[in-house]
Design a protein that fits this description.
With 247 residues, the chain is mainly α. It has a single domain, classed as Ferritin, CATH 1.20.1260. 74% of the residues lie in helices and 0% in strands. It is built from ten helices and no strands. Helix 2 packs across helix 9 and helix 8 packs antiparallel against helix 10. The longest helix has 28 residues. It is globular. Pfam families: MiaE_2. This is Ferritin-like domain-containing protein.
């Protein structure tokens, strides 16, 4: 998704205009509001490119799996990522926007993130999938309560957690008899969550619409941002503890 931001200082969130609240009527009524639809398009654009990147990453990393069973498992996870991408693509299409248009603002930033966190081997790749996918899910769930029911349902569907359970089991198996690997992956996990925190801040700051969703109706944006990222960090620490590692 280290205790706090990588440089030790929280980056203040912007103070954008709050997005219009989704009406209590049908989701279609909310999404018919162009301004609200723009907020949702931004959010789904970053989710879609994350899923597409995840598919590419897992597909490529599967080649280095230590066994055929591991290779097949990562392949299945990659297929799930692409299925999620297609689900988001169809949803965005109903908003009158192509998925390419929705993803384009986030391509450079997400590509740079993956370049900075390129795994050194298969085990680091597994840890990256475990940490980043879970962090992303936490981050998107933090936005879900501000959204209309239809968009909330989509986010819930693509955040099933099935992949995380498999990754956790496989990492625990790999770590159980290798203290040196455990030490290395603990350090790698700390680096990953630091980079993920920075990335989440950057997305919110660079895209006013996403920041509006995240910090809407909050009197103290900086305090809310600090609380949110502290919670993301605590969630990461619990996941690392589940592996027997120190965050």
């Amino acid at each position: 998704m280290t205790n706090g931001y990588p440089d030790g200082a929280a980056v203040p969130a912007p103070t954008p205009a709050a997005p219009p609240a989704a009406p209590a009527s049908a989701a279609e009524d909310a999404l018919a509001n162009p301004r609200y639809a723009r907020f949702v398009t931004d959010l789904l654009g970053v989710i879609a490119y994350g899923e597409l990147s995840g598919f590419e990453r897992l597909s490529s990393d599967a080649r280095f799996s230590p066994s055929l069973a591991d290779r097949a498992s990562l392949g299945r996870l990659a297929v799930q990522e692409f299925e999620h991408f297609e689900m988001v693509s169809r949803f965005v299409g109903t908003l009158g926007v192509t998925i390419e248009e929705a993803m384009a603002p986030f391509q450079a930033s997400i590509d740079a993130f993956h370049e900075r966190t390129r795994p050194g081997d298969w085990y680091e790749s597994l840890m990256k999938a475990y940490v980043i996918d879970a962090f992303s899910g936490d981050f998107y769930r933090s936005l879900a309560d501000t959204l209309d029911p239809r968009t909330r349902e989509l986010i819930s569907t693509i955040d099933s957690g099935e992949g995380a359970a498999h990754l956790q089991r496989r990492l625990k198996e790999a770590l159980s008899d290798d203290p040196r690997l455990a030490s290395r992956l603990a350090l790698w996990g700390r680096r990953l969550v630091g980079e993920a925190l920075t990335q989440a801040q950057r997305v919110g700051i660079e895209r006013e619409y996403l920041a509006g969703l995240l910090f809407a109706d909050k009197a103290d944006h900086t305090q809310h941002a600090t609380a949110l990222f502290s919670q993301l960090t605590r969630n990461h620490s619990r996941r690392m503890s589940a592996l027997g590692l120190t965050a």
